[in-house]
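note to self — DONT lose this again. spent like an hour looking for the file last time. sequence + predicted structure for the chain T wanted, 148 res
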Amino acid sequence: MSITPILAALDLDAVTYQFTGMCVVFCCLCFLSVLLTVSGSVAQRLEAKRQARAAAAQAALPPAPAPAPAPAPAPAPELSPQQVAAIAAGIYDAARSSITPQVVAAIAAAVKVTVGHEARILDIRPVDASYAQSGRSSIMNSHLPARG
């Protein structure tokens, strides 16, 4: 088979058009590559100048004064035997109901900060989560397509 009939059948205008298009694309890609390289080097130089200015400003600052000593914490109030018994009972009940003592302490602290000394915690117990499960179930059932 000879190549001459194949070359004769080619449309030279189409080949020229495709070659020109590829040259334009490659020229644009080269231009973008050069543009990004130049902008990257400019950004690096600007960042180096900014860091040098920041280092010079940091060196020009006088040393920071030593921090003042922290004030002594206030002495803890004395607890009455009834308060100790109430706290122990709360912790015991919490341990029985699988609530950790840390949670009981956090709840007690929150109540004291919010309400004050006149508040008393009588009972801490976990909430039954069945209402949440039924709510999620009803929401999921509402998304099912109607059957008929």
